[in-house]
Every structure is written in structure tokens, then in C-alpha cells.
């Protein structure tokens, strides 16, 4: 399961990068249009922002699952690993 979580995390990072690019592109579009086109671009920007928030939640869940999948080392075992 660990490998699948890393692959899912990589995919989530890729999606976040695409979202950032779309966010920038739409912001540039908003600065150069007016009227109905600006309204449509604003709605697209809102959609991108909501998608970004969802992706951050998904990444938090992936991190939580990864932490649950990793066994916790305590006491002497932890010291041995550090040494």
C-alpha cells in the first residue's frame, strides 16, 4: 500500500501544479477581458480555487494514510535507528 500512496501523492502534486498554472492563466485572462467574458473567467477562477482546496484535503488524507501505514518505532528501537 505504501507504493500506491506515493504514486497517489505524486499524482496529487502533478494536479496541484496544473491547478497553479490554470490559476495564473485565468488570472491573466481576467485582467485582459471585460463584460461577460470577465464573468466567465471569474467563475472559472472560483472553480479552480475550489479544486485546489479539495486537492489540499486529498493530500492531507494521503499523508495521514501514509503515517498510518508506517509502523511507529518507540523506545530503544527508536534510539537504535537514530544511532
Automatic annotation (TrEMBL):
UniProt superkingdom: Bacteria
Identification of the protein by name: Uncharacterized protein
Highest classification ranks of the organism: Bacteria, Pseudomonadati, Pseudomonadota, Gammaproteobacteria, Moraxellales
